[in-house]
Structures are given as structure tokens and as C-alpha cells.
Design brief:
alpha/beta, nine-stranded mixed β-sheet, globular, disordered N terminus
């Protein structure tokens, strides 16, 4: 047990929940780092998502103290966590990818920050690459944002360009979305929002949830005093056509659900056009499968609108339009003006 960090008067219960699908090799490598965590009121849970490898038997043999929640089928990231968190009793949950290496004091600074403001609903640590440990990792970096057309980016990562970490983003700041690879959340608020939208299956469900939280007047933060390293692409590697499909489809669904009605009328058609321009660019570099995945994603969006929209997990309220949406166009900034870093983007918010 460690001494209380300054400002943290007690240790609320924190459940670290790893959603596992055929991740034996990641569990074997990264669980020992989790066991070095210094937070004294932490429980560790593995929610197995219908694995067909020997993940469960490995855990039972080597980690008898870890609670295992079993699902007979792979429900995906979104529904898989919804199901698991229904069975978890803790003030805070940390949704942690199985391919994340944590550092010993990674929990305390985040809980201290969230305890300081009851309106902080979710938070993430600073996320660096596991293989290149001084460079920000794609899936979250130092905090996520979207631009006015719904394109996600991060402090430390614009599209595929990941910056080196030189301490330039070491401050706690309010962000638009926290990364799902190490997602701290108030359990009560997670359930209040209805959890992740299960239709998403995987990808961008955490951005959608964070948007719904902010519309209900909650805040999302990054706490860089907490540091983790992420392998990335553990389930679906970068460039995988299913990953491209889910990202583009889910992004459009998210925009439809969370934009105000007037914004939908012109921003979604404009996004569809920008997506097609992006897809055509990939034709010239020989990535025809990428183009087909984007077109399929557009049809997937229209299919959702026709058949599944009424069952969609829409915002419960629209009390507060988030201040954390970047007012410019990062496609223009990055690809036309050549801005590569968040600092360059943020210098002129136009």
C-alpha cells in the first residue's frame, strides 16, 4: 500500500476489465505489469468474449485470483463490455486492451483527477507506442478530438502521423474523446448513458459514448501523469478492410446520432463526399480494397438508417454542445496546408 497522493483522500474501488478474444499471448505478456500496479483498491477482471484459444485455461492455471467473466460468443468490443460491466461492482472501471503495458502508478493520478470534479465522466492516460516508446500511439496519444466534420484526431497524432513525446502534452486538459484502449469511466455514468452502442460492434464506440456524455453536460479529460504503452492492432491490424469498413460506417452513424438536426442536413452529405475523395486518392496508390470498404461502409450507414435507426442508442439529452470540437477542417489543414502536428493545427483554429 502506498501513501495517498496529494488530493486523494480515499481509494474508491477501481475494476480493471480486460475484454479478451483469443489473446492468450497478450495476457501472458502484459498481466505481470498489471500486477505491479500500486493502487491498493483495484480488482482485475478478464471478460472472455467467446475465445477459441486456451486463454481461459491459461488464466485458471496461472492467475486463480483474477475473476473471469465468460461469454459463449464474440459480442465485439461494444456489446462485450456492456455485458461485462453489468456484472461489475466498482465506482470506476478501466476498460483496458489486452495489449497494453501499464506502469506501476498509472491509476492514482487519473482517480485523483476524476475525484476532483464529479462531472469528469471519462479519462485516459498518455498512450505511447509499445515498440517505439518515445512516440505517441495512434489509438489515443495524448487525448482525442474531432473536427467540425467528425474526423477524429489526437494531441500527438494527426491521421497517420504520430509525434515523438517530448513532454509537449503533459498537462491535464479537457478533450473530446478518451481512447478505448485504456478508458477510465465512472461506472454510474456508463450505465446512465446506456453504455456503448452495441450496433457499432467495434471502433469509434468510445467516441460516440464520450459525445453523448458531453451532450449531458459531463466532461472528458486526459491525465498524462498516467502512462501506458500500447501495441495496437491486436485484434484487427491497421489497413484491415473490416477495420476500414467499421471506422467509416460507425463514424457516419455517430454523426447522425449526435449532430443537431440542422447540422445533419449538410454535414453528413459533405462527409460522404470527403470520404469518396479520400477513397479515390487510394485508387492511385493501388489500394482498391480500401475503396470498396469505404463504399460498403456508406451502404452500411444507409442500411442502419433504414433498418436499425429506431433501435439506435441516441443521446438521452442535448443540454450542452461540446466546446472541444475543433472548428476547422483537419483534412484541409493536414493534406493541403501540410500541418502535421496538433500544435500546428491548434495555432490557428480555422
Amino acid at each position: 500500500m502506498t501513501n495517498n497522493p496529494e488530493g486523494l483522500q480515499s481509494y474508491p474501488k477501481v475494476a480493471v476489465v480486460i475484454l479478451n478474444w483469443n489473446g492468450r499471448k497478450h495476457l501472458e505478456h502484459f498481466l505481470p505489469f498489471l500486477q505491479q500496479s500500486t493502487y491498493p483498491n483495484m480488482s482485475l477482471i478478464v471478460a472472455d468474449n467467446g475465445s477459441t484459444d486456451d486463454s481461459v485455461s491459461f488464466l485458471e492455471m496461472n492467475y486463480p485470483d483474477i475473476e473471469i467473466l465468460r461469454s459463449p460468443v464474440n459480442e465485439g468490443y461494444a456489446k462485450g463490455y456492456n455485458t461485462a460491466l453489468q456484472k461489475v461492482s466498482a465506482e470506476y472501471c478501466v476498460l483496458l486492451n489486452s495489449d497494453v503495458e501499464v506502469t506501476p502508478g498509472w491509476i492514482e493520478p487519473v482517480i485523483e483527477l476524476m475525484e476532483s470534479d464529479k462531472f469528469i465522466a471519462a479519462c485516459q492516460p498518455k498512450i505511447l507506442m509499445w515498440a517505439e516508446r518515445n512516440r505517441f500511439e495512434y489509438a489515443g496519444a495524448a487525448g482525442g478530438y474531432i473536427d467540425r466534420y467528425g474526423y477524429p484526431f489526437c494531441r500527438g497524432r494527426i491521421f497517420d502521423y504520430c509525434e515523438h513525446d517530448n513532454g509537449q502534452y503533459n498537462d491535464n486538459v479537457e478533450i473530446f474523446w478518451a481512447s478505448g484502449c485504456a478508458f477510465f469511466v465512472r461506472t454510474r455514468v456508463f450505465h446512465e448513458m446506456g453504455g456503448f452502442d452495441p450496433f457499432f460492434f467495434a471502433h469509434q464506440e468510445e467516441i460516440d459514448l464520450c459525445w453523448r456524455m458531453q451532450l449531458s453536460n459531463y466532461k472528458i479529460f486526459v491525465c498524462p501523469k498516467s502512462l501506458v504503452y500500447h501495441v495496437g492492432g491486436g485484434t484487427l491490424p491497421k489497413g484491415n478492410t473490416l477495420k476500414v469498413y467499421l471506422n467509416f460506417r460507425n463514424n457516419l452513424i455517430m454523426l447522425y446520432k449526435n449532430y443537431y438536426r440542422g447540422e445533419r442536413l449538410w454535414k453528413i452529405p459533405y462527409r460522404l463526399l470527403l470520404d469518396l475523395v479520400s477513397a479515390l486518392k487510394n485508387v492511385f496508390i493501388g489500394q482498391e480494397t480500401y475503396v470498396r470498404a469505404v463504399i460498403k461502409a456508406h451502404w452500411g450507414f444507409f442500411g442502419w438508417w433504414l433498418r436499425h435507426r429506431k433501435q439506435g442508442l441516441f443521446p438521452k439529452k442535448k443540454m450542452h454542445k461540446p466546446d472541444t470540437i475543433y472548428p476547422g477542417n483537419i483534412v484541409w489543414k493536414h493534406f493541403i496546408q501540410g500541418k502535421k502536428t496538433y500544435s500546428e493545427m491548434n495555432a490557428s483554429k480555422k
